[in-house]
Amino acid sequence: MSQIIQLHDLSGPGLDVYARLTEARLRAQEGVFIAESVTVIDHALDAGYEPVSFLMEERHAEGKAKTLIGRCPDVPVYTADRSLLAHLTGYELTRGVLCAMKRKPLPDAFSICAPASRVCVLESITDSTNVGAIFRSAAALGADAVLLSPDCCDPLCRRSVRVSMGTVCQVPWSYAADWPGAIKRLHGLGFAVAALALDDRAVSIDDPCLRACEKLALVLGSEGAGLRPETIAGCDHVVMIPMSRGVDSLNVAAASAVAFWQLRRQ
Fold first, then answer.
1. Which residues pair with 5 in a beta bridge?
2. How many whole angstroms separate alpha carbon 124 and alpha carbon 149?
3. CA–CA distance from 57 to each of 20, 200, 256 (Å)?
4. Residue 11 pLDDT > 80, yes or no?
5. 249 vs 32, which has greater pLDDT?
6. Contact 178, 201 (CB under 8 A)
7. How many Å apart are CA 233 and CA 73, to the nearest integer?
8. Is the pLDDT of residue 92 over 70?
């Protein structure tokens, strides 16, 4: 059975991962990420991530988190009342349950692409909310894998995991270290590569030539700068979503959902 530890103060070292370590230290030194909510934690457990500890309101240990705790025997469960947890974490736990989980080694970027038909590639997207939302759309709308340039936000940072509703644990992903040179590797795997960008060469996203691609990698860039010119130059297609009322573009997460749906493999 899991050990239920009721907190009366905030001094325990087991609480460091929840309140006293930065995202950078969690990632680099501890090899840990934080999953929040029963749904997200369930997805992470299903994907094989190993729990380190739980932190939750007392009422949830015998309530909505009871089944979750039962899945993880011998994992410490820290509980406290809402006011103490708010003091520890800096805000009230609106979803009531946190879990520190060990990261898994990242797979080779191109081993996850080889069997795929639809791949999402993110370049220099540093907003964690956008990254999490893109992963949720990728999972829901049939993207087989996600590649990230080295300067992208960590998909397992806390906000990204939360916004993704745990889908960062479901969709295979990794970093493409050689970027934008990795586009050539995608070509070598048989992918047509399409840049989503505002460009004179751009074709509409409903162009039949795009849906006809057996293997397609869609490259998305940051909100401000967009894709680098050398990235666009290395792609086979430049794609745009037609806009109305003088709007030039969508938020990158919204654009990804439109693109994944329109270009899904049938």
1. 78
2. 6
3. 19, 55, 36
4. no
5. 32
6. no
7. 53
8. no
161 φ, ψ to 5°? -60, -45
Report yes or no: 88 and 111 within 8 Å, Cβ to Cβ: no
CA distances from 123 to 5, 50, 100, 149, 213 (A): 43, 29, 28, 5, 22
Query: End-to-end distance of the chain based on CA atoms, in angstroms?
Result: 46
Question: Can you give the pLDDT at residue 42?
Answer: 95
Cβ contacts of residue 1 below 8 Å, gap of 6+?
73, 74
Q: How is residue 200 written in tokens?
A: 């004179």
* CATH match of 4-102 with 3.20.20.140: no
Two tokens, residue 25:
């230290």
Backbone phi, psi, residue 38, to 5°: -60, -45
Could you give the CA distance from residue 229 to residue 217 in angstroms, rounded to a whole number? 17
The label of the residue with tokens 């293997």 reads: 215
SS3 for 208? helix
Label residue 175 by pLDDT band (50, 70, 90). very high
Confidence tier at 251 by pLDDT (50, 70, 90): very high
Say if residues 202 and 238 touch (Cβ distance below 8 Å).
yes
Looking at this protein, which amino acid is placed at residue 25?
R
| pLDDT score at 16 | 87
pTM, two decimals, is 0.92
Q: Which residue's structure tokens are 């009422």?
A: 59
Q: What was the pLDDT predicted at 88?
A: 64
What is the pLDDT at residue 194? 97
Residues of the chain with CATH 3.30.1330.30: 4-102
Decide if domain 118-262 falls under CATH 3.40.1280.10: yes
Q: DSSP label at 226?
A: B
Residue 223 amino acid letter: E
pLDDT at 94 exceeding the cut of 70:
no
Indicate the pairing of strand 216-220 with strand 192-196.
parallel
